[in-house]
Amino acid sequence: MTVDLTIVIPAYNEERRLAPTLEAIRAYLDGPEARPGFPQWELIVVDDGSTDRTAEIAAAAAAADPRIQLLRGGRNRGKGHALRQGVLASYGRRVLVTDADLAAPIEELEALEKALADGHAAAVGSRARPGATIDVHQHRLRELLGRGGNFLIRTVAVPGIRDTQCGFKLFDGDRARAAFAASRLSGWGIDVEILHHFRRQGWPVAEVPVRWSHQEGSKVRPGDYVRVLAEVTSLKARSVRRVDLLVAALFVTFAAVLYSARWISPDHRYLPHALQDQNQWEWFFEVTAHNVRHLQNPLFTDLQGYPDGVNLMANTVMLGLSVPLAPVTWVLGPAVSLNLAMTLGLAATAFAWYWLIVRRLVRHRGAAALGAALAAFAPPMISHAHAHPNFIVLFMIPLIIDRALRLCEGTHVVRDGVVLGLFATYQIFLGEEPLLLAAMGMLLFTVAYAVVRRDVARAAWRPLARGIGIGLAVCLPLIAFPLWWQFFGPQSYKSVLHGDNAGNSPLALLSFSERSLAGDADTAASLSMNPTEQNAFYGWPLIALALLIVVWLWRRPAVRALACTAVAAAFLSLGPKFRIPRTDVVLSGPWALLSDKPLFESVIESRVAMVCAPALGMLVALAVGHLVARGAEGERRCGRPFRYAGLTAVALSLLPLVPLPLKAVDRTEVPAFIADGTWQRYVDTASGETLVPVPLPDPAYAEALHWQTTADLGFRLPGGYFNGPWGPDRVGIYGASPRNTSNLLRDVRNSGRSVRITDAWREAARVDLRYWKAGLLVLAPQPGDAALRTTVDDLLGQRAKWVDGVWIWDVHGGG
């Protein structure tokens, strides 16, 4: 038996409101004003364990009209359970679910039916859409709670539907019964679960403005909004595909294996290829946690580089991670925080690329995972994994790319523009240079795709431009002060110059990095600035594979745009000038057009080749997806041997790039003088005195930063390893502005030979020590320490004293 319309009413203790509702519905459907199309109807009241006369009233109505039915439950189990029982018992071509108070009048059925007649599978009555009429409002607090709850609900589960909880919804009958049969929630969250099911099945849902009036006696309590959100969150968690969880677990495992040598004992292991960067980054995490705990300015500190201090915003402190991880730093220390950030950040980056590839390019999960693995674990990423978390924690970049693509669709320009602005703001606090490189890559892809698909470009540029404008309007006020502080605040600088050899050699693009399975340390060292800047090294097999993929899939616009992006980024990474290998021919590179421009002048141009990693990963994902996902159709078109040959070629091209776990060595032990707190007897921190390591910490030797974090930042240091200004032009340099004494001690350390000290040197030392407010000089055992001790003895006119594993010079007269 089928009928034209089924109305399902869940009822719990509705003795005062149920009878008028039943009469109003019956009068409308049978009366002269009834909309044609529902000559045969049924009405199902589901009593959800009421303790009043609700069931009695429904039974009387059913006795008077056989089209009305009563379903009774033994106990109160919730609106979701009642609706499920009623819908599954229905026979209607259309199914209307409405609350017992009939807050949305039955006459609004006509507007919902029109939406279904236009091709939608469901029509949701809405109080939030333009055109809705609220005759009687709820209490303001309840209304605010409803709006806030709806915002969270649609953010988590059903974006785009403004009012999920309005109890007036019309469904296609068969699809409604399928959705409710698959539902599991028994509470108020059933509305969201059903709409989420429709979305996953691709069944279109319309949100229709209706007339609505608040009715006294509502069963919804303030705490129910929290329960609905909990149910929706649980629903969203259950809807995650198992294969996605497996991919995420694999990425976490890969990242953990990569850092396994440090996870053995984070506090006592050091990555030698990090040079001094691990000391610097641990200090960044420690000083941020210190500032958060003491409610101090997170953009500045004078704990290093005393007395001038350090502009933290002008350094890569990654406030977007170091602030949230402050509790971990307080409890477990900065070494664990840094290790956690780099391990989970790298895995999150891989999963974000995987999500983007699945969403935008390839539906096959295996192909997407392979492409994402190449994007996140490519040789340049592994190189930066030694020391630069800001270049491997890039999980926001795929999200920013996806939001820009949504803007091109022009569906929700304002919303997507706002989200894009918030995403960009957060990425700025993770790393500005990666955001700049990502913007360059996105621009290259956009230009290439616009050339290939001019029709798409013409349709997309207006919403994209408008959305970017909205994003800037959101982002700029949030970052205005931090950026002002970065570029104009204390210890700000203009630019950091990296010399003329910061570009890639063409050979670097074809060779293997040191930590790749096929890598060679000597070759990689000869083609890069240092182990942390091996920014290309994709290997000739992968380059050859990419060329074959581009030729094979050339007809696809995305392939052509990705190929152009990778080639352009590779050429830009060669720098303003590059030499053709095996010759003396030097050519100008395209980077010459950008090298002296603001922001770009501080970029290490070889890093632009990192843009190639996701581009190559997407090409590989497209190729594998094309080979695998088509199944039998693919075999008929290209043959089983070709498929196997293609997959074998991909495997052989990627195998040499498999990263090896990063090397780690035992860390230099912190002297007992520092670790045990003996230094506190010699340095009067209350009066502003500093502890001066010999030699002063600098980018070449920054072990004193580890001393400082071990001592919980108890003392200040002159010198240090950070970016700061130098000279009247405020040119950016690594480390503090040099002084006579710091230069002298550095030269002695580097040469291993003491120098003849003159009165001029002694006077310069007195001036420098006063400038630094030095209370104590400390020399730890190290290569060349004899020459350093002799030099300082002569410089200060006093003999060093051996205390708890270090030589000290008390320069304030205490001790």
TrEMBL record:
Pathway: Protein modification; protein glycosylation. Belongs to the glycosyltransferase 2 family. It is an enzyme of class 2 (transferase). It is a single-pass membrane protein. SUPFAM superfamilies: Nucleotide-diphospho-sugar transferases (SSF53448). This is dolichyl-phosphate beta-glucosyltransferase. Its EC number is 2.4.1.117. Gene3D superfamilies: Spore Coat Polysaccharide Biosynthesis Protein SpsA, Chain A (3.90.550.10). Residues 6-171 form the Glycosyltransferase 2-like domain. It comes from Streptomyces flavofungini. Keywords: Endoplasmic reticulum, Glycosyltransferase, Membrane, Signal-anchor, Transferase, Transmembrane, Transmembrane helix. It catalyses: a di-trans,poly-cis-dolichyl phosphate + UDP-alpha-D-glucose = a di-trans,poly-cis-dolichyl beta-D-glucosyl phosphate + UDP. InterPro entries: DPG_synthase, Glyco_trans_2-like, Nucleotide-diphossugar_trans. The chain crosses the membrane at residues 245-264, 328-354, 366-382, 435-452, 464-485, 537-554, 561-580, 608-629, 641-662.
